[in-house]
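Protein modeling request. Please complete all fields; requests missing the sequence field cannot be processed.
Requester role: graduate student
Desired output: 3D structure, token encoding
Chains: 1
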Amino acid sequence: MYARIGYRMSNNPLWDYSIATYSLEGVAPACLALQDNFGLDVNVLFYASWLAQLERLLSHDHLAGMEALITDWRSDRVKPLRALRIRWRQTPQAGSLRDQIKSLELRAERQQQNMMYSYCKRSAELPWAERPLRENLALVASFAGPDCEGRSAAIEHLARLFSS
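Delivered output (164 residues):
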């Protein structure tokens, strides 16, 4: 898919892939549902999908190392900005401030993806695999804990959207 999209806007192909893929029909709501209902990180879902486009199979050790790198950033920066932006939805007079918070949240997510891409570049090469999208996404989901009702179906739905 990344090659099919065929453009590059930054020095981070993961970010470029994420921006292009997020705009595809149905992807944004599917990602947000996995985030809101099952605690999955949308950026990590895109990372798993991007690696699959490169025909790289995500390993448990690689994902654990990356999670260790980004956990504090996500918890201390991205999530508080997201929570504040969501809370301010109910305050109409805070519209422009909410937009500024949304911009900061997006910048924090981009920084997280920069960290993830740097980690990928300096890590040992992941093994080649033909179409490892479902395996990669399932591994990401497993890091959120034991499977719960609806999560596998939501991951499968996202995989179909990423594959289209």
